[in-house]
From TrEMBL:
Endpoints of the signal sequence: none
Stored Pfam families: CBM_2, GSDH
InterPro entries: 6-blade_b-propeller_TolB-like, CBD2, CBM2/CBM3_carb-bd_dom_sf, CBM2_carb-bd_dom_sf, Glc/Sorbosone_DH, Quinoprot_gluc/sorb_DH_b-prop
Record lineage: Bacteria, Bacillati, Actinomycetota, Actinomycetes, Streptosporangiales
Record domain CBM2: where: 359-468
PROSITE patterns listed in its UniProt record: CBM2
Protein name per the record: PQQ-dependent sugar dehydrogenase
């Protein structure tokens, strides 16, 4: 199904959660969901009986919840959870906010800290995602230590766990460690490097996921202020991958002093500017369920904490990605979760709810035809906007991104503004109404620094448009 013909919808199924931040789904036949609350509790939701009042886990006595981004941040169920009742938690610990990984034995209500990273200077950028990979190892993300601009230059350092995605074996102990470091981790044995590191160069990879179908990793890394990014790192290319921070923010150099010659940086597959209303990307999941497989099978879904835009990404089979905005999520979504059968849920921060995610086919109500002419350092783009819906459009607002290095110089038949790489074009006084089946034209002149590619996605009054090129 073309992405522009997909619409996401959500249905709230539970109320009264206190700042929920993560979801886990035991594959034990109970149909339960475990919902993590930032304060240090985990509550159970069942579709038949709703949200249990009393928490199944309470580690509030161990959790530092000070600051907006500290608290109990993530949960991962052991692969043998149905038998062992063992799970793993990531949280900022009292008394100093150290980012901590711990084992929790549900039947004993026992918390066992395993690994800790000091994080005292700032209370933001704690990361926190926990996932068991298809290899049985536990993956854990930690932010760069907080503040702004990577003040400790941790993103590109290998002597700290800050700004990293780690890979550890929690099924056994090795020497003085309460876990083992897999021998094939990329920096094992390197002088001055932490062997737990799997990938580095993250700013605050708050939510990442592993696609069980192919082992690839999708990472939503929260940006500094100009670019939010999503990385897709294939299996076989993950060990030692450098996500770029703080040399890069998105595709743009952020701090030249942190850039190194001879280093291969992993480029994001999707970036967007906060000028769209966003503030923090919330990485999601690849849909592998059955109910909506014909619509979004194999499609990655993510959102943004502030804009609530729902993003869909799918490989195009030619080395690139199809991308579209497919509607809105609830306000302030913090995490996605999936049932053992692959159906999606999300939780939102305030007012604190659990929502079931659905997808439907919705024919696009607009179509864009592009004509581009480029030369030297300049280009023109002519756009024809067609109303393919059944109702008149009375006043329009077309939003689209430009390639990096493009700057609009002038425009026609529209009132156009550019913020960062985001263009917002609104109707002129004389072409604001578009009857069903009718079109209006507009265009712009832009300079470029080598990339003269035309815009790849458009929304008209927040509806995604189909594109004719």
């Amino acid at each position: 199904m073309p992405l522009e013909e997909i619409n996401v919808t959500t249905t709230q199924v539970a109320f009264g959660l206190r700042r929920p931040v993560a979801i886990a789904a035991p594959d034990d036949g109970t149909n339960r969901l475990f919902i993590v609350e930032k304060r240090g509790t985990v509550r159970v939701y069942h579709p038949d009986t709703g949200l249990a009042q009393n928490p199944i886990i309470d580690i509030t006595a161990s959790v530092d919840e000070s600051g907006n981004e500290r608290g109990l941040l993530a949960i991962a169920l052991a692969p043998d959870f149905a038998r062992s009742h063992v799970l793993y938690l990531a949280y900022t610990a009292l008394p100093d906010g150290a980012v901590t990984l711990a084992r929790y034995r549900l039947d004993e209500a026992r918390l066992e800290p395993l690994l800790s990273q000091a994080h005292a200077e700032y209370d933001n950028h704690n990361g926190g995602q926990l996932i068991f990979g298809t290899d049985g190892y536990l993956y854990w993300s930690i932010g760069d230590g907080g503040g702004a601009g990577d003040p400790f230059d941790t993103g590109q350092r290998l002597d700290t766990l800050l700004g990293k995605i780690l890979r550890v074996d929690v099924s056994r102990k090795c020497g003085s460690l309460a876990y083992c470091i897999p021998s094939d981790n990329p920096f094992v044995g390197r002088a001055g490097a932490r062997g737990e590191i799997w990938m580095y160069g993250g700013r605050n990879p708050w939510r990442f996921s592993i696609d069980r179908a192919d082992g690839s990793m999708w990472i939503g890394d929260v940006g500094q202020g100009r670019w939010e990014e999503i990385d897709h790192v294939k299996a076989g290319r993950q060990a030692g991958a450098n996500l770029g921070w703080s040399c890069y923010e998105g595709l743009e150099v952020f701090d030249q002093a942190q850039c190194r010659s001879g280093v291969e940086y992993t480029k994001p597959v999707f970036t967007y500017s906060p000028y769209t209303g966003g503030c923090a990307v919330v990485g999601g999941l690849v849909y592998r369920g059955e109910q909506y497989a014909d619509l979004v099978g194999g499609t990655y879904i993510a959102t943004d904490y502030c804009s609530s835009a729902a993003w869909a990404l799918r490989e195009d089979g030619r080395g690139g990605y199809l991308k579209a905005e497919i509607g809105e999520m609830p306000t302030q979504v913090t995490a996605f979760g999936a049932t053992p059968k692959g159906e999606f849920y999300v939780v939102n921060d305030l007012p604190g709810g659990l929502h079931r995610v659905s997808f439907e086919r919705a024919a696009p109500t607009c179509r864009i035809k592009l004509t581009t002419r480029a030369w030297g350092t300049g280009m023109t783009v002519d756009l024809t906007i067609t109303n393919t819906g059944t109702a008149p459009i009375d006043g329009w607002r077309l939003v689209f991104p430009l390639a990096l290095g493009q700057t609009v110089i002038s425009d026609w038949n529209t009132d156009l503004t550019q913020g960062s790489n985001v263009v917002t074009a609104t109707n002129a006084a004389y072409n604001g109404t578009i009857a069903p089946g009718r079109s209006v034209t507009m265009g712009y002149l832009a300079s470029h620094t080598g990339d003269a590619s035309p815009p790849s996605r458009f929304t008209l009054n927040r509806d995604t448009c189909a594109i004719d090129t």
